[in-house]
Write a structure and sequence with these properties.
GO cellular component, one term (chain B): endoplasmic reticulum
Radius of gyration of chain A: 34 Å
Pfam families (chain B): Pho88
Strand content of chain B: 5-15%
Strand order of the largest sheet of chain B: 2-1-3
Radius of gyration of chain B: 20 Å
Largest sheet of chain A: 10 strands, antiparallel
Distance between the termini of chain B: 47 Å
Number of domains of chain A: 3
Largest interface: A-B, 33 and 24 residues
Protein name (chain B): SRP-independent targeting protein 3
Number of helices of chain A: 11
Shape of chain A: flat
Oligomer: heterodimer
Number of strands of chain A: 10
Number of helices of chain B: 7
Keywords (chain B): Membrane, Transmembrane, Transmembrane helix
Strand content of chain A: 15-25%
Structural class of chain B: mainly alpha
Number of strands of chain B: 3
Helix content of chain B: 55-70%
InterPro entries (chain B): SND3_fun
Largest sheet of chain B: 3 strands, antiparallel
């Protein structure tokens, strides 16, 4: 269509140029003739860019959705085997929150209250932002390079102890510590029980050893570290709590991974999830139990963290109080200044008297 | 020899060289420009080669150290870093690559906008020199063992800003400070 319009425009442009024609000459022409001689270059460009943007948006949007559906379909079998409900409603497996954010859900299994699956993808639908973020992330640390991510949060419905332990991929582990409050409470240690591309981050060796069940150990492969970010058992928040309520324990198991599409990689994630579901059963049946000393240590570290938070809170309060006091004092001074000289003198005398009395009292004590 | 001493030596020599050169002459100017750009390209290639080497070695040994707080960013407490040798090395190389681009941008401003030519002469040799003297290049390209001064984490020479802000910019690697900083719960920054 455009080549056709273009040929008209170029043909007529060679004959007549809109800008060269006088008002009278234009007035003579019919509307159609005027359209023919008008220079439409800017309009073509605008339409062209708009269309390109729309096409890129649609392609990126579709690409992201494909990634999500591929992942969910690969895990479907496992979830249907374990849960009464997989998906946000009987006919939808996921909700599209935006072109780069999706979420899914599963519920209805013994010992597990729910599983939340959230996807955060690269802004493929917005090509310019995507390119810009990718480029900027190399030059500044304040821009994170866009990544495809899936976080699977398993919330057990059983009572078990508070503790933090995680198996973390060595690739990017410092960032995981930086962005996860609970990981920054743990000690990092290498272990020959897991592939050397992973480390344990846990509050005590007791937890990392007992939560590494046989199926979980087998599911972890050396190359999984390239996409798996971490598998974490935690009762503390991801973001550093800003209120006292934020320290309230919330036990859950988090599997965080880059969103991959390879069959083998997806199978590894399935194996890990299956191992974790079984692990929750072991926790429920008390097959996995922890030593009392280790649990006591956890209680203590939680108390220390809360005390730290309280201390900061008190400091802030003290600062606010000091500011208010200073303000009151200033107001009082201003009030006195506005009074008549005689009254000012009276107040001054009173203050002096007070001071004198205080000094005398001190002397008496010393004597 | 101490790189700082040789840097001053090179600077003095290049100052004399740039005095001898007739920088008004367009042909000489062209050669100076080509020399500058090729030196930057060589430095960049050295870094990229190092980067490839680091990636292919894939050394996943865990590396822990404690960074002293960055007063400019408003930090007050030391920060534990848990990383791998590979990731540490990549970070070092990337910051060097970034510095090549920053110096290119600076030179672009000085030369194209302000019309200075002398810095072109001075910067050309020193960029290659600093590339060959970088710790990370020494380890991966020249095969110097990573011990002594080249033991990771590298000790940065105290900079001018450190004296002003009171931070030493130093890293601690002793067991006690790592253990206390590691579990201090300083993570959990809000992610975008």
């Amino acid at each position: 269509m455009f080549s056709f319009l273009n040929s008209i425009a170029s043909a007529s442009a060679s004959v007549l140029n809109y800008d060269d024609l006088s008002y009278e000459e234009l007035k003579e022409m019919t509307v159609f003739q005027r359209i023919k001689v008008h220079d439409w270059k800017l309009e073509y460009m605008t339409i062209g860019f708009t269309l390109a943007f729309i096409v890129l948006f649609k392609v990126g949007d579709y690409w992201n959705e494909r990634k999500v559906t591929t992942f969910l379909n690969s895990q479907k079998e496992l979830f249907l085997k374990n849960f009464a409900q997989f998906g946000v409603s009987p006919d939808a497996t996921y909700i599209k929150d935006s072109s780069e954010a999706y979420s899914s859900y599963a519920s209805g299994r013994e010992n597990i209250a729910k599983v939340d699956i959230t996807f955060k993808l690269k802004p493929r639908h917005n090509t310019f932002v995507w390119l810009l973020e990718t480029g900027l992330s190399f030059f500044t640390e304040s821009v994170n390079s866009p990544q495809d991510r899936v976080d699977i949060v398993i919330t057990p419905s059983i009572a078990y102890d508070n503790f933090i332990t995680a198996i973390v991929s060595k690739i990017g582990m410092n960032d995981y510590r930086k962005f996860n409050y609970f990981l920054s409470l743990t000690k990092t240690s290498d272990s020959d029980k897991i592939p050397e591309s992973f480390v344990f981050m846990s509050e005590a060796a007791e937890f990392q050893e007992k939560t590494l069940t046989e199926p979980l150990r087998e599911a972890l492969k050396l190359e999984s570290a390239s996409f798996l970010r971490y598998i974490a058992f935690t009762d503390q928040a991801v973001e550093k709590p800003a209120t006292l309520a934020g320290f309230q324990p919330q036990r859950r198991i988090i599997v965080s991974s880059h969103l991959v599409g390879g069959k083998q990689q997806l199978q590894q994630i399935t194996d890990i999830l299956a191992a974790l579901f079984a692990l929750v059963d072991d926790l429920a049946s008390k097959k996995i139990e922890f030593k009392v000393e280790a649990l006591r240590k956890i209680v203590k570290t939680r108390e220390i963290e809360i005390a730290k938070f309280r201390k900061i809170e008190d400091e802030v309060k003290a600062e606010i109080k000091a500011e208010e006091d200073a303000k009151l004092k200033k107001e009082e001074r201003d009030r006195v200044r506005k009074l008549s000289p005689a009254e000012q003198e009276k107040i001054e005398k009173k203050a002096l008297e007070k001071q004198r009395k205080k000094a005398m009292k001190k002397q008496k004590v010393r004597m | 020899m101490n790189p700082a001493v040789t840097n001053i030596g090179i600077m003095l020599v290049m100052m004399q060289v740039s005095k001898k050169l007739d920088l008004e002459d367009p042909t000489i100017l062209l050669y100076v420009r080509i020399a500058y750009l090729s030196c930057q390209a060589i430095a960049l290639l050295v870094y990229l080669y190092t980067r490839i080497k680091v990636s292919s070695k894939n050394d996943l040994t865990t590396l822990k150290y404690v960074e002293s707080p960055n007063a400019m960013a408003g930090e007050t407490e030391p920060k534990a870093v848990v990383t791998t040798v590979k990731e540490y090395d990549l970070k070092q190389v990337d910051s060097l690559i970034r510095s090549v681009f920053t110096s290119l941008a600076m030179m672009g401003f000085m030369h194209v906008y302000m019309k200075y030519t002398n810095p072109l002469v001075m910067q050309s040799v020193s960029s290659v020199k600093s590339a060959l003297e970088a710790n990370i290049v020494k380890i991966h390209v020249f095969g110097t063992p990573a011990s002594g001064d080249l033991k990771r984490p590298f000790k940065a020479a105290p900079g001018f800003l450190d004296a002003l802000t009171g931070g030493s910019g130093a890293v601690a690697t002793d067991k006690a400070s790592i253990e206390s900083a590691e579990v201090a719960g300083r993570g959990g920054i809000k992610e975008e």
